[in-house]
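Forwarding the complex inputs:
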Amino acid sequence: MTGNRSDAEDLAQDALIRALKALPNFRGDSQLSTWVYRITVNAWKNRVRAEKSRGFWKTISFGAFGSDKDDDEPMYEPTGNDAPLDTELEKEGTAAVVQKALLQLDADDRAIVVLREIEDKSYGEIGAVLGLAEGTVKSRLFRARAKLKTLIGKVSA
Amino acid sequence: MNDSIREKLSAYLDGALPDAERRAVELEISRSEEMRMELEALRAVSAAVKGLPRETLPVGFRARLDARIAREGAAPAREYFILPPAYRPLAFALSTAVVALVVWDKSVTRLDIAAPHVGWDTAKVGVKSAAEAPPSIDVSGQLSAMNAAGKTREDETAENAAPQELTAQAAKKEDAAADDKAAPSSTFGKKISAPGKPLEVAEADGAASVAGALSGSGGSGLSAPPARSAPAAAPAAALDQLEPAEGNSFKARSEEERSAINEHLYQGFEEEKKRMGIAKIIDKDAEEEKAPSGGREFMTLGASPESPSLNRGRSVAAVRGVAKGNPSAPIVKAITLKSAEALATTWAAAGLSGEPPAVSFPDQMAIFLACPPGCGIVTVANRKKAIVVLYKDAGFDDASARVRAVTLSPKPVLLKLAQ
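Prediction (whole assembly, two chains):
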């Protein structure tokens, strides 16, 4: 969801600490895992809002190294896997396109896609995490997938 | 294409449609080539996202999390900001009364007006000036009613005090304030009495004003309902009584109780984490905590002497070796290494001869550039948010240009091709 390893770790720490702090208020209305997912998604949305408001989402200045006018994409692609180099490069090609398209989805759409496709959550569980009715989950997931399809086409073009 | 059917393709793909709707979608798919293509496109998108590589938890995650918890604390947040919920009705009633009375005190003096509270027996209350007012009021009836559902920790303290003492304190403060003729003020009393006990507002300068306005002549104008008798209880028993009704979020507990509850919940949380399949982070921590470097370990090379492959190292930055737009350009990677052994292994795995440059481990880490022959690092800048590695992909004869020593840092590494 965050697009890079460092932010992902920070988010995971934030979410787990929030969950620990809020545990006394957990009433068991949902599964603990659903509750933790909800905390994580909310923490992430807060971070996205905060980053956007600070105006440097995904942007780091390299003023000391001359013009960065053509640097409109992230400078680095953390991989972190142990696959052989050739396989890794092949995977990076497809995965990078999908990842880049995914990062262009807005927060709500990205959350619903990640919960369904990567976390393999049911519509009911997604609804519980995001506070949506199941019917709303269906329609939003459809729209998010349609947007993602368009974005993948644009990114890979 | 039928839009309502089209919107159901996504749910159909997930097998989340009821039978009737599923059959309708299947019928439409069998009839419409466009619908079939749409479904396949959605299926491809779904598969592409599902096929994204999964990141494993970085080594040392648990250690860093524990350190952050130790630094920031993960104790349960305070469940109230200023007053516990049990006091809020009281605070609201009193603050409302103060606001109303300040207005009255300024605009109305020596007028007979209707009693402002339905719980008071007198139909009318005489309002006098602040200077003539006594220092305290007895609204124990209101307190009893408001706190009927439960007591608070301060109640317990109040109950342990002798009623005579409270009465004596109240009388003493009444006398003092009557002599003082204090001017009204917004300050309010700090002590709140238990149900059944007189409410003390004598610490407030404006007490005379409040009491005068409410009670009329010397506090006798208000006739509160009889106080609820509250038996004295041992602290533990009193704490038991503090347990709220189901659904009440406020729980006044001792620190020991909180710790015990937190420990119990934390254990449950740990079990749930295991059930969720993330328990393995615990196993990696023991080794991580022994790491001498003390830094963030996500940059550590994972190569071992048994399989000295460059690809077992953890690259922290990777870019195309030439200007973007050329997908066939070789990938250049920066790998951070935190031990001489890791550096030697990586050096050998990259097919380089000789010895790698000296690096002062563990205070420093080595940035190794995995790139085509002739490449090298121009400079390394330790910026505020990242370590920026400026490199060239040709022109270096000495392989040692691939390695730079930098101060050990948890910052991300960014690669930039020098112009």
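Chain A has two domains: 1-57, 83-157.
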